[in-house]
Amino acid sequence: MRAVQLLKLNAVSAAWVDTVWDFEFADIEPLDTAIEEDIKEDSSVFKKVYKQLLPLSNDNDNTESVWKVFAENGVSVKTLVAVLASFVLGGKAKSPSVEQRRYSLQAAALYLLLLRIPGSVANKVFHQILFDTCLDVVLKCWPQSSGKKRKKDSLKSSQGDPKSGKRSKPPKKASEEMEIEEEEEEEEDEEEVYFSAQDLLRLRDDVICLVRTLLRLLERFSLKDKPQSADSCVRVSVPPREGGRCLPELAYRGFWLLCSSSHGEGNEVGKICTLLCFRFYKRIKCAEYSTPCVFCSHVVDEQPEAALPLLRILLQHICHQVKTEYRASGAQAVGRLVAKMPLQDYATFVKWLHSYSHSPRVAFRMFALDVALVLLAKEEQEDSDALPPELAPYLSHRFLVHHLVYGRCSDLSPTVRGHALHCLAQCLDLSTPNTSKGIHELFSSSSASTLLHISLTTTAIETVALFRQRVSDPKTNVRKCALETIMSLLKHGVIPCSPENLAILSDRCRDPAVSVKKKALQSLMGLLAVSSRYFMLPKAWLRGVVPAVIDSESSVQEKALECLDHVILTHIKSHINYRQGDTSQRLAWDLLRMMCDKCHDLRCVSHIKAFSVWARQQRFTSEFVNSLIWHTEGDRAPGAWLLLAKVAGSASKLKYGTILEAWDCTVRSPVVNVEMTCHILSVIGHIAASLDEDTKSRLVADLMGWLKSFSLPLEVISSSVDAIFCLGQSANSFLNEFCGELVSVCEDYLSGVLLSEKGAENLNEELLVKYLYTLGVASLHCPARVQKRVFLLVQSILTSSEQTAPEGGADLPASQPLTQFKSSLPTVVRAHAVITLGKLCLQHEEVMLRYLPAFARELEVGTELAVRNNVVVVMCDLCVRYPNTLTRYIPNISACLRDPEPLIRGQTLIMLTNLLQEEFVKWKGTLFYRFTAVLVDQDPSIADLCEYCLVDLLLKKNPLMFSQHFIECIFHFNSYDKHKKYNKFPQTESEKSRFSLKGPVNQGRRFRIYRFLLKNFTDEQRFNITTRISQDVLACFVDSELPLDLEGADLLADVFDVLSLKEMKLTVMSGPSPGDDTPEDEMAAAKAVLQKKLVSQVQKKNFVENVIPMVIALKNLLEEQRSPVLKHLMAYLQATMQDYRSEVKELFAADEQLAAEVEFNLKMFEKQKQQELEQQLSNVTLSPRPKVRDGQPPPPPTHTRSHTVVCLCSGKGCVLSWLGRSGSAGSHHPSPPSLCAEAPTLPEILRRTQVMPASVASLPASLCPGCRW
C-alpha cells in the first residue's frame, strides 16, 4: 500500500474522476498540475507499484485479497484507473517528450497488470477504449526512425553540425514505416525530438515490459467477444524495426496466444492468424522471411482447419507485395508455405501461379520464375485418385519447366527473358530427376503433347535456334543469361558439343558488350573444367579465349590472360613434377599442340600480347624455361617449342646445349618440320646474345648454306633471315655481308631467268618464288646492297616477257599499270613480285614515289585477283611508313571496297579500319561514304563486318563521326553535286558510277545506310541534324539556290523521307521500345514523364521556328510546279504531327489550308489503320477444343502453322487459333468457325501474342466465366 500511496490517489478530485469515466477516456481534462508534480517526484513510481502488484497477479489464493485490501485502505479503483489513463494519454500528445513517453508506457503496463489480477472484471477495471489506448501508445511512444534529425536548438548546440554546413537528410515519415494501417498513413506535422542512446534503451525496456505484461494478460484474459481489442493486440505485436531481437520473439508469442481458442472460434482464429501475418510481412524487413515462415507453418500444423483456407490468400499476398530486392527470400518463403498445402490446394496454387506469370507487371513475372525454381527444387508431388483430373497436370515438374520457365524465355520484357534463361540453367543443377527430364524433352526430336492439350511440334533444332536468337538478343543481360543456359545445356549433355553449338560460346567472346565477353570466357572455362574430354571443346576454347587477349577492353584482356594462365602456364611442370596421367597437364599440352596443328592464326595473337604481359610480370623464370626445354625431347616437342619461342628471351640461364642439339638435328634432317623449325629459329634468335662467337659463326654458316639451297619453305626462309639478323646483333657490316650475299645470289638468278633468251623455257615456278621471297626479306636488312638493277628485274616480272627492263635505267611510265601487258610468267610469280617490290619500296623512298602511280593504276585496271590483293596490302603498309605521301592515294585504295572480288573487299575493309584506328589515315574526301557503302554489300558477312568496324571500333574513337557526315551522305549517295558545300570531291566517272546509289532502284539500300547511321545517333545529334537539314537543304530550295529539277526532286524526296523515319525521332519522345521494361519505380516514371514534357516543348519550339516556315514555303513551291515530292512532304508532316495531334491549327496558324490538309490526312491515316486492324481480326478463328476422354491422348492437330493459346479456365478450357509470329493469319480450323463460350476477349488474345494495336480496346468484350479474363 505504501507504493500505491505514492500515486496520491486521495488528493485526486472525485469530480475529475467521474468526468474521465463519463467521457470514456477520450478528450479528458489533464490531471491537476500539483498532483502530477507530486507523483513525478519519484521517477520510478509506476515501476514500484508494478513490482509490488506483480506477485499478486499469479494464480494463487493470496490474489483474492488484493481488491479487498484496496477497499479497506480507501483506494478507489476508479480513481486509480483514471490517474493511470491520464498518464497514458500524455504519451499521445503532440510531440511528447522522452519523460512523457516513459510515464505513458509504464502507466499502460501497470493498467494491463491490473487486468491480469483475478477479479478485475468484477471490479470493472476493463474498459475497451482505455485498453486499446494502452496498446496504441507502444506505436506512438516508440521513435518511428532513430535517424531523425535533431531539433533546431539541438543542432545549434551540436559541435559537428555548425562546422560542416551540411543539411542532414530528412527523416522517413511514419507512413513509410506503417504501410498497412490507414490511421498510420496519416502524417502529423510534429516537431522532431532528439533521442540519445540512453533514452532509446530506456524506452525499449519500457516497451518490452508492456508487451510482456500483455502476453501474461492474454494467457488468462479472453478477447473472444472483443474483436477490436484483438486487432489492437495484433497491431502492437508487430515490433518496430529498431526494437532489437527481443521484440520479434515476444511478437511470435503474442501471435500464438491470439490463435488460441480462448480468443476466437472457427474462422475467427484463421482470420486473426492471416491478418497478423499480413501485417507482419508488411512491417518487418522483407529479407527476414525464414522465421515468419516457421511460425506460419507451425500455425498450419496445429490448426489446419482454420489456417489452410486462408493460406492461399497469404501466399497471393506475398506474391503481390514482395519487393524486388528481396525476391529470392520471398520465393523461398512461398516454397516453404506451399509445402504445407494439401495436394489439391498445391495444384490450385500452381495453376494460379501460371496465370500470375502472365501478369502485365514485370516484377510479378520475375517473381513467378523465382517461385517456380523453388518448387522445382523440391520433390515432385505424386498424383492421387481424389485429385480432379483437370488439376493433375499442375503437379508435375514438367509443367513448371515447360510453361513457367521455358515459356518465359520468349517474354516481351528483356529482364524477364534473361531471368527465365537463368532459371532454366539453374534447373539443370537441381537434384530432382524430373526437372532435368523435362528440360531434355524440350530438346527431343519427336513431337510431344503437353499437359494442357496444346500440341508442341518444337524439335531440338528449333529449340536450339531459339537460344541462338537469345544469344544475339539486343539486350546485354539476355545475351549473358543465354550464354549461361547454353553452357549448362552443353555441360549436362542436353545438347551435343558440336562445332556449331560450341561456336555460340566462342563467338560471343567478341561481343560488343564487355560483360557478355567476360561471361563467354567464364562459360568456356566452366565447360572446359568438366567436359574437356570432348575433342572439339579445346579448339572452341582456344578460338574464344586467345583472341580476347588483344581485346580493346583491358578488363577482358585480363580475364583472357587469367584463363590462359590457369589452363596452360600453371600446368607446365618440370620433369620431376610431370605426371603423364594428370588430366590438367595433359589438357595444357593438348591445347599447345592444337595451337601448332589446327589454330595457326592464333599464335601471333598470344605472342603480341599475352607473353609480353607475362614477361613484364616475370612469370618466365629460368626454372620454367628449362622445364620447357626438357619437354622438347618427347611427343610434347611442338607445344614446348611454341612456348619457348615466346619466352626464351625472358630468362638468362638456360640449357643451351639442348637447344643447339635440336638445331643440329633439324639441319641434318631431310624433312623440314615448318612449325617446329620456325620456333627453334626464334629461340636461337632470343639466345643469340648469350652465345660465343664460334657458336654464332657455326649457326650463321648453317643458315647461309640452308638459305642458298633455296629448298626451304617460305616461312622458314623468313625465320632464318631473322635469326641471322639476331646473330649479327644488328651490325650493319655483318648484315651487309651476309644479307647482301643473299641479295646478290637472288639478283644473279633473276638475271639468268629473265634476261637470257631461253631462261623462261625451263622455268621452275616454285624456285623463282623462293628467290623473290628471299630477295624481299634479305633486302630489308641491307638496303645499301640493293642496286637499281634489282628494281628493274623485279619490275620486269610484272611486265611483258617481250618487254624486258628498259635499258639505261629508264623507269616504267607512271601512267601504266604494272601488268598492263600480259606476261608469260604465272600469276603467283607476279603476285610475289608485287610483295617483293613493296618491301624494296619500304627502304627506298625515291623508288616508292616512282612506283606508287603504277600501283594505283594496277588497282584500277588490273584483272588478276592475287596481284590486286597484294597491291592493296603493299599500299596499306606504305601508309604506315609514308602517311603523308600516301594520302593522295587513299581514294584508289578505298575504291577497292567496291571490287568485284569479296576477298579484296574484305581485305581492304580490315586494313583501312586498322589505319583509321591508328590515325595513319583520316576521314577525308570520299572515304567515309565509300566505307559506309559497304553496309549494303552483296555479301552479308562483309556488311556485318563493316557494321562492327564502324560501331565498335571507329565510332568509339570519334563519337561525332556519323552526325558530321550524315547530311553529305544524302547528297553523295544521290550523286547530287549542285550544292555549293556538299559532295564537292574530285572523283572519276568510274568511281562515281561504282559507288553511286542513285535512283529509285537503290532507294532501299540508301535508307538502310540512313537508318544505320541514325540508330547510332544520340538525342542531341538527332535534334541538331533536323535543324541543320532545315537550314542547309530545305532553305536552299526555298531560296532557289538549288533547282527543283528531276535530280533536285529526288534529293528532296529523300530528305523528307529521312525526316519521317522513326530513327529520327528522339528516344525520349518515342518512349520505351517494345523490348524495354516500363519503370516500376514511381519516381523514375514521373521523371521520364517530366523529361518527355520538357524535351517536347524544346522540340516544338524548334519545329515552329525553324522547320514550319520552310515546309510552308516548300509546299507552296511544290504545288505551283505540281511536283511529285509534295506527297513526301505531306507524309513527313503526317509522321511528325502524331506527337502534336491536338495542336495542328496552332502550329500551322500561318497556313490554315495546310493545317486543314494535315488534319484531314491524320484522320485518313487513322481510318486506314483501323481498316487494317479489322481485316486482321477478321482472320482470327475461335473454335472449341474437342472433348477428350480421361486417359486418352489428345487428337493430333489438324493444322500445324497456326499457334495456340489456352484459356486458363477452372473448367473445360478452350483452344484458340490466332495470328502467327510473322503477323499473317494462321490457318483456320477445318470445322465451321464458332465462338467459344469461354473465350478470352480479343484484346487479351492480341496482348498475349504481343500484338496490341492502339484501337483494339474498342472491340466488344467477351469475358471467360472461368478465369474472368
From TrEMBL:
Residues 147-191, 1178-1202 are annotated as: Disordered. It is found in: Nucleus. One of its GO terms (molecular function) is histone binding. InterPro entries: ARM-like, ARM-type_fold, CND1/NCAPD3, Cnd1_C, NCAPD3. The keyword Nucleus applies. Coiled coil: none annotated. Its main location: nucleus. GO terms for biological process: cell division; meiotic chromosome condensation; mitotic chromosome condensation. Residues 867-1034 form the Condensin complex subunit 1 C-terminal domain. One of its GO terms (cellular component) is nucleus. SUPFAM superfamilies: ARM repeat (SSF48371). It comes from the Eukaryota. Keywords: Cell cycle, Cell division, DNA condensation, Mitosis, Nucleus. Residues 177-191 have a biased composition (Acidic residues). Regulatory subunit of the condensin-2 complex, a complex which establishes mitotic chromosome architecture and is involved in physical rigidity of the chromatid axis. Component of the condensin-2 complex. This is Condensin-2 complex subunit D3. It comes from Electrophorus electricus (Electric eel). The lineage of its organism: Eukaryota, Metazoa, Chordata, Craniata, Vertebrata. The gene is NCAPD3.
